[in-house]
């Protein structure tokens, strides 16, 4: 998990300055007609960090984990992400992911195979959740042009 932690940190360090270069106005423009804006994507990634933080810690403390599903559109809507300050969102996203990198690096090896069920999905391991979290983050950073192209 230390390698995954380092990849997450490098990704945050690379993406944060790119995100800060996006203006407030640009952050509100949908990437596709009817799609999410950069601001909504970052809001979604903050929600993902929040949900996965809970999953990582709870799965490390239990023999198995049953966790509710996640209504991504509802979370973005209820939190009024579109009206939030862009740079505040970027700072929160970066800080939260730095913390998650720390948490991931310290996940107990003995708990990485803990089975986790999220909503009605098939059970997966804590190791899978951590790796999937990173892949999901990179996917969305690519959508908004903030991922490292290397």
Major beta sheet summary: 3 strands, mixed
Q: Structural class per helix/strand content?
A: mainly alpha
Low-confidence stretches: none
Distance between the termini: 21 Å
What is the 3D shape?
A: globular
Task: Please give the share of residues in helix.
Answer: 55-70%
Total domains: 1
Give the C-alpha Rg. Answer: 16 Å
> What is the count of DSSP helices, taking H or I runs of 4+ residues?
6
Written as H for each helix and E for each strand, in order along the chain, the element string is HHHEHHEEH
**CATH fold title:** Four Helix Bundle (Hemerythrin (Met), subunit A)
Using the 3D structure, state the CATH architecture: Up-down Bundle
Spatially, the strands of the biggest sheet line up as: 1-2-3
Question: Kindly state the mean pLDDT as a whole number?
Answer: 94
The CATH top-level class label? Mainly Alpha
How many strand segments?
Answer: 3
- The amount of beta strand, in percent, is 5-15%
Describe the structure.
Strand 2 (115-118) and strand 3 form a beta hairpin. With 150 residues, the chain is mostly helical. It has one domain (2-143): dinb family like domain (Four Helix Bundle (Hemerythrin (Met), subunit A)). The relative contact order is 0.22. The radius of gyration is 16 Å and the shape is globular. It has helices at residues 2-20, 24-27, 38-61, 72-78, 86-105, 126-143; strands at 64-67, 115-118, 124-125. It has a three-stranded mixed beta sheet. It is built from six helices and three strands; from the N terminus they run H-H-H-E-H-H-E-E-H. The model has no long low-confidence stretch (mean pLDDT 94).
């Amino acid at each position: 998990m230390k390698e995954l932690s380092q990849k997450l940190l490098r990704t945050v360090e690379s993406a944060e300055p790119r995100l800060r270069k996006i203006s407030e106005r640009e952050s509100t423009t949908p990437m596709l007609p009817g799609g999410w804006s950069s601001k909504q994507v970052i809001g979604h990634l903050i929600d993902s960090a929040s949900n996965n933080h809970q999953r990582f810690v709870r799965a490390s403390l239990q023999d198995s984990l049953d966790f509710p599903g996640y209504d991504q559109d509802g979370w973005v809507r209820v939190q009024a992400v579109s009206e939030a300050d862009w740079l505040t969102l970027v700072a929160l996203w970066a800080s939260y992911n730095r913390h998650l990198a720390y948490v991931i690096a310290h996940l107990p090896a003995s708990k990485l195979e803990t089975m986790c069920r999220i909503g009605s999905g098939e059970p997966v391991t804590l190791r899978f959740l951590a790796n999937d979290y990173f892949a999901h983050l990179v996917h969305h950073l690519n959508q908004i042009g903030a991922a490292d192209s290397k």
